[in-house]
């Protein structure tokens, strides 16, 4: 006598689910930074204060540069990238208080709660600036 064969239900295979995408982690240099430097004009006996304000997010930043002085104002933009070792590179452009418009390069270093940067333009001495991160 033959026994009827029992049929088993088909096997089910579980497909692994991907975890939800997490937000990119913050980096050690993320935050808002401000700084300034003073420019003394030997030809016009004027003093100009240059101020920078940037917000770093995921090691990249864009920000503003403003000039305030006794005779005119000006301003521009700054864009930087920060490498994992703290090296800073970037560029910017500005209209100076004397009306001259130009582009400049940026290089420097980030560490702890500050950015030390140097703004350079061909044929002119560099400007050094330290930007400090605001408390969060």
Task: Characterise the protein shown here.
By secondary structure, the chain is mainly beta. The protein has one domain (31-133): Lipocalin. It has strands at 31-40, 47-57, 60-69, 73-82, 87-95, 101-111, 114-120, 127-133. It has an 8-stranded antiparallel beta barrel with strand order 1-2-3-4-5-6-7-8.
Which outline best applies?
elongated
Based on the coordinates given, report the CATH architecture. Answer: Beta Barrel
The termini sit apart by: 83 Å
Which CATH class applies here?
Answer: Mainly Beta
> For the CA atoms, what is the radius of gyration?
27 Å
Parts with pLDDT < 50 across at least 5 consecutive residues:
none
Question: What is the tally of helical segments?
Answer: 0
User: In sequence order, what are the helices and strands, one letter per element?
Assistant: EEEEEEEE
Structural class: mainly beta
* Count of individual beta strands: 8
Q: Per DSSP, what share of the residues sits in E-state strands of 2 or more residues?
A: over 45%
Can you summarize the main beta sheet? Answer: 8 strands, antiparallel, barrel
Q: Order of strands side by side in the largest beta sheet?
A: 1-2-3-4-5-6-7-8
The domain count comes to 1
CATH topology: Lipocalin
Fraction of residues in helix: under 10%
* Overall pLDDT score: 80
């Amino acid at each position: 006598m033959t026994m009827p064969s029992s049929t088993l239900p088909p096997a089910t295979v579980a497909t692994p689910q991907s975890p939800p995408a997490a937000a990119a982690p913050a980096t050690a240099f993320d935050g808002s930074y401000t700084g300034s430097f003073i420019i003394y004009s030997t030809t016009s006996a004027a003093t100009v204060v240059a101020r920078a304000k940037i917000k770093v997010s995921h090691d990249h930043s864009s920000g503003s540069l403003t000039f305030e002085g006794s005779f005119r104002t000006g301003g521009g933009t700054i864009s930087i990238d920060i490498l994992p070792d703290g090296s800073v590179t970037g560029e910017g452009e500005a209209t100076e208080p004397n009306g001259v418009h130009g582009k400049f390069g940026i290089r420097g270093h980030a560490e702890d709660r500050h950015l030390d940067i140097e703004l350079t333009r061909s044929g002119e001495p560099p400007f050094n600036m330290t930007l400090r991160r605001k408390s969060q």
